[in-house]
Design goal:
Structural class: alpha/beta
CATH topology of the largest domain: Rossmann fold
Strand order of the largest sheet: 2-1-3-4-5
Helix content: 40-55%
Number of strands: 11
CATH superfamily of the largest domain: Response regulator
Number of helices: 8
Order of helices and strands: EHEHEHEHEHEEEEHHHEE
Largest sheet: 5 strands, parallel
Shape: elongated
CATH architecture of the largest domain: 3-Layer(aba) Sandwich
Length: 228
């Protein structure tokens, strides 16, 4: 799952970011409304978590602008303003849920799962990814191929999720480093090769039924592609 957090408080952002990454989610963060609006408008996210009080553009303006432009990505508003009037205003502006500060991460995680299940205006985001007989349950954090469960480590799950979202396309090493490891530089290690090898072993050898074609392909000189 890919999440955009628009939050100017470094302590809150670090708290959410650490927990999200431990859960295996990819997280981008903006610390002001203008940058957050740009990322939300140009990127692809499963959930937006937006603080109501932001510098540049406030959270309500970001939300209204997104909804006015037809963006239906689920939004959870965070705020220290917990009175009914402010909650109603946020929901009427297009928020899917409202979480007053301070909060426990377990509650935020549960609310994220809830808005993903519920969807927005009949346009529910996918909570299951599928390529051939390989399926990935994003809420249950489970992978199966041909009905057989595949046990994945958190980083392997995140890698497979990204590959499945880009199914049929070639993904480069740079794309994987940025999306799965949050590296914006080449660490000069074989971390990708090791994880790709483990993932291929699990989905194409151990998890596949006899005679099933391989799904994870190496494209020499370019990167990798997941396709039937």
């Amino acid at each position: 799952m890919r999440v955009l957090l628009i939050e100017d408080d470094d302590h809150t952002a670090a708290f959410i970011g650490k927990a999200m990454k431990e859960d295996g989610h990819a997280l981008d963060r903006a610390d002001n409304g203008r940058d957050g609006l740009f990322l939300a408008s140009t990127g692809t996210y499963d959930v937006l978590i937006i603080d109501r009080m932001l510098p540049g553009l406030d959270g309500m303006t970001v939300l209204r602008t997104l909804r006015g432009a037809g963006n239906t990505t689920p939004v959870i508003l965070l705020t220290a303003l917990a009175d009914v009037e402010h909650r109603v205003e946020g929901l009427r502006a297009g928020a899917d849920d409202y979480l007053p500060k301070p909060f426990a991460y377990a509650e935020l995680s549960a609310r994220v799962e809830s808005v993903l299940r519920r969807g927005v205006a009949g346009d529910a985001p996918a909570t299951t990814l599928k390529v051939a007989d390989l399926e990935l349950d994003l809420l249950g954090r489970a992978a199966t191929r041909g009905g057989r469960r595949i046990e994945l480590q958190p980083r392997e799950f995140r890698l497979l999720e990204y590959l499945m979202r880009q199914a049929g396309k070639v993904v480069t090493r740079t794309m994987l480093l940025e999306a799965v490891w949050d590296y914006h530089f080449d660490p000069q290690t074989n971390v990708i090769d090791v994880h790709i090898s483990r993932l291929r072993q699990k989905i194409d050898r151990e998890g596949a039924r006899e005679g099933a074609p391989p799904l994870l392909h190496t494209v020499r000189g370019a990167g990798y592609r997941l396709s039937a």
